[in-house]
Amino acid sequence: MRLPTWRFLTGLTALVLLAACGGGGGSDVPAYSDAKITLQAQFEKRPLTPAGFGTTTLRPARYCWAEVRDAGSSALLASGYLGSDGTGTAFVPRGAQVFVRVYAQYQVPSADPNSFFLRGSVKNAPLPGTTDLATFSAIPVWSVTSSAFLANQDGTLAVTALAGNRIAGAFNIADQAVAFGAAVRDMDGSASLRLPNLHTFWTTSTNPADQARTYPALAPAPGNTYLVTDSNRAIFSHGVYGLGSGAANTETDEWDDGVLQESFARLLFADHSYKADGSSSLSLLRRDNDNVWVDRTEQSESTAAFVAGFSDFLAGAVRNDSRLLDSYVDAGGVAQVYTFDLSSHGAVPLATKGEFTRGSIAVSLWGLWKNALGGAQPGLQTLWAAVRSTTPYADGTGEYEQATLGCYPTYLQGVASRVSTSTWSTILTELALEAVPNPNATYFAGTALWQTSGLPLSAAGTLQTYAPSADLYYDRNQSQAWRFTHGGGARTITMTPTGGQDFYLELIGPGGWVMGSFSTPGSTRTLSPSNLPAGVYVARVRAGATTATGTYGYTISVN
Questions:
Q1: Does pTM top 0.90 for this prediction?
Q2: Nearest 5 degrees, angle CA 433-CA 437-CA 440?
Q3: Which residues contact 351 (CB under 8 A, 6 or more apart)?
Q4: What is the band of 32 on the pLDDT scale with cuts at 50, 70, 90?
């Protein structure tokens, strides 16, 4: 007899129905002797505010996995994903002693009822290292279990994950992942886009070594490979904080919805996220630097600033809440809430505002959405379309995916091409509030973003460096880009540090990062593409494994 499953009846609304257990012959029709159980799964939500936690409310465990099992043998009687309201219906043998277990394991549906957009879970363990698929799958997922009950008649069962024992926190993480997946699906609107699987590792372990907040990355497997599920989805994993002892300098992330959403957004910029099976090394959204955290109020390298700022914007837009809140316990043992408000033009100091500052990018994007593009789904789709744009321009600036550099000014060209003249005028007003200049031909011909030179190029520059203890590598003054037009064929780019510090050399062009040199710290670096397509490129020099704080020089040539 076929094991009953909860099946989606529609692609997007996704209310599910459990097949019969006693119908015989694999029939989906419930037998007369079956009892109908309507399950309502929910969790206690602790809303975080700038002043601390608000009033706890009940939220549905949307799209989470549920199982009905025999209380005596634990035999699986029925299972499947719940609907968008956290409900599902099962038929079990009347008179059976059963219990229900709901997992913080979710599936965001796609428009195709035979497929899904995103799957993932919240695992109760520290972030693992290299594992095989069986070991990874065996890592426990957070769950809540009902008491055993006698299914002697039809009825409704409510299963609630409580905040008091912290299980509700896992379901909030899962619910935020559901919100993220649904938002990306709806912004993109494509029938074919799918995301890899995403698993969050969240443990309440009191061992500080078990605690980590990381961005999503491919889950490594033995043999320098990565994990892929039976449904041909690559597995990405990341960690969030869960040490809730209240001790000084500790954090918990389960109720920090903005923090969770910013972490999820980084999946879109992660290597190998371009295809759901991980078979391409590219990221879904272009990324021309490391997928790193940079300060919200300091000017950073242009491409790193954009990735971080766009992720912050998505973290607010997915929830339609401008506040990014991060709860923590300070050095004095006092609970605090850090607040960054995307609707506030005072969030970034005037001296550091601009197109190179993560916070200004996020704040201005929020202003574009709310004040120039209507603040609803169509405006959000416009901003998403611009980050997916592949339109090239003759001067190499392009729109985001086909620009020489994937940064805020080139992204804004994709926005400009999608709005009316009057709307663009309103957008320029919003940008000016964050000191973001008009990304016009005059701007791209200037020196704020890059130095432009004919070939052959022979020049010198200086970069700010820091000792390793400072852990600073992505500030604006730690990199410099040299733009040149290449006619096709071979090219040689050479960079030599002149002050004894280590600088990286990279080649970037239309479509993103091309190649780089990072090994042998402090040495001359050479890039020699033999068949580089014609286009406008930049050679970027940036601080590497530096050993001292100061200003140090280099020379660069392009032949």
A1: yes
A2: 140
A3: none
A4: low
